[in-house]
C-alpha cells in the first residue's frame, strides 16, 4: 500500500511540474546603517521598509516584484543560497510601534516588546522569504515576495546581515491567472507601468497578445443617471475637443443591461466590458454616493473591510478589475487576500447631486486645462499641523514631500526646484484658516498638500460652512484653481458618514464642498476614512501614499491625477 501511495504522489508531482516553470534570481544587499534609539537599535537599509506588528522587532523588508509567465502565478520561492557578511553585531532590535489615526492621536503611548520573541533563542524572523502573492495588471502577472536581509537571535542579541540571496521562483498555470488574461492588453502606458514595478521587465517579450480588433474605441466612459446626464454635455464636448473618444451611459440603462448580484457588480461588469471591447482607459463616476439619502445615492460605492473599519468607501472596485473582491462570498468586501490593487482603468468621481455642481466642475476643468493662471502654475503650499503632544508635527512629514526623501526604506523625488513653496506649519508658527484664504486668493497656489486633524465636515482648520464664495475668490482667472491632497481623516468621506458606523451627516463632506464650489479646488485626493500617522516618526502608511503621489509627478513624469493616485 505504501508503494502505491508513493507512486501516486510521484506521478502527481510529475504531472503538476509538467506545467511549472522556474526562474533563478539573485539579490544583493549592502551593509545597513544602525541607529541608536534609547536602549534599542534600528537597522536601516536604503531599499527596505522597516515593518513589524506592534511589540515585535522592527525589521527591514525588501519587496521583490517579478513579471511571471503568461497565465501563471508564483506557487513557491525556494532559497538556493544565502551569503552573510562575516561580522556579527550585538543588537537589541527596536520593537515596532502601532500607527494611530490622525484624529485620535497617541497619548502617553509606550510600546512593550513581545517577551515571547525578545527572550527567545530562535532566529528571527523564522523565514527569510515571506508574503508570496501574485497580482495582475492588464493581464500581466506580477509576483511579489519579501526578503528580510537580517537574522537575529534575540536571547543572544546576535545579529548577522545578508550579503546575497539566490532564490528559485516556481510558477504554475492557475485558473485565476487564466481568467486575468481575458483583460490582457498592451500599450506604451501599460508597459511603462510594468517596467516601473518589476525587476525583470525583459520578460515582457515573452507575452503574446491577441490580435487588435477593428472596433470603435471609447477612451473615456462617463456613468451617471438620467437626471444628471444633460449636465455633462459641455464636459463631453470639451474632452472630445482634446481628442478623447467619450461615451456616457446612464445607470437606468446600465442596470437593465449588465448582469450582477447588485448594482455595484453591474457597474463593474459594464466597465470590464468597455475596457475589454472598447479599450476604455478612463472612467468618471458622475454622481454622489450617499446611502442615507436615496436621491443622492446616484452611483453606489463598494465599501471595503479592514481590521479597524467595516465600510471604507472606495471606487477601487471599479478600477482594479481582477477577481471578485469577495472570494468567500460573505458581506465583507476587500478582505486580506481578496484584492488585486493593480488598476486596469483610471477612475475619478464627480461627487455631484445637481446640475449646478456639474457646471462648476466642468468650468473649473476647462479653465484649469486650457487657460491656467500662468503666474500660479509654479506655486505650492504645504500645510502641517501638530498631531500630538509628544509633539509629532505634520511639518516634518511635509518636508519629505518638499525635499524628497530616502527615509524609511524607500526613495521619493521632491518637488521641482522651479516651484515656489510656501509653508504653514504649527512647528514653526501659529496660523489660522484666514492664512489659507490669503494663499488661495492673493498669493496663488497650484498644488497644495495638507496633514492635520480633520473630520467629515472639517479640514485645514476650517469647517464646510467656511467654504464659501466670500472666503474663496480664486476664480481661475485672477488666481488659479488648486489641486489639493490631504492626509486628514474622513474629510473625503463621500458617503457623508461620521466616525460612528451608521451615523450619516445631512451635508456633504469637506472634500465635496471644496471641489463643487465654483472656486477653491479643481480636484483633490482625500481620505474617506482615517488617515494614519506614527508618533515621533514619519513612517506611516498615509505618508507613503503621499510621498509616492508626488514622486509620480516629479520623479516619474506622470501628470494625470488619476494615474498619479494609481501609481501611489
Description of the structure:
The chain is of the alpha/beta class and 568 residues long. Helix content is 23%, strand content 26%. The strands form 9 sheets. Strands 1, 6, 7, 11 and 12 form a 5-stranded antiparallel sheet that branches. Strands 22-19-23-26-27 form a 5-stranded parallel sheet, sandwiched between helices. Strand 9 and strand 10 (140-147) form a beta hairpin. Helix 6 crosses helix 7 (263-278) and helix 12 crosses helix 13. The N and C termini lie far apart (56 Å). Residues 1-18 have low confidence and may be disordered.
Q: Which helices and strands appear, and what pairs or packs with what?
A:
Blueprint: H1 2-17, E1 20-28, E2 33-37, E3 40-44, E4 49-51, E5 59-67, E6 72-84, E7 89-90, E8 100-101, H2 115-118, E9 129-137, E10 140-147, E11 150-153, E12 158-173, H3 175-180, H4 188-197, E13 220-224, H5 233-241, E14 246-250, H6 251-257, H7 263-278, E15 282-286, E16 302-304, E17 312-314, E18 346-350, H8 355-370, E19 379-384, H9 394-403, E20 404-405, E21 412-413, E22 420-425, H10 433-443, E23 447-451, E24 458-459, E25 462-463, E26 482-486, H11 510-516, E27 521-525, E28 532-533, H12 541-554, H13 561-567
Parallel strand pairs: 13-14, 13-15, 15-18, 19-22, 19-23, 23-26, 26-27
Antiparallel strand pairs: 1-12, 2-3, 4-5, 5-10, 6-12, 7-12, 8-28, 9-10, 11-12, 16-17, 20-21, 24-25
Helix pairs in contact: 6-7, 12-13
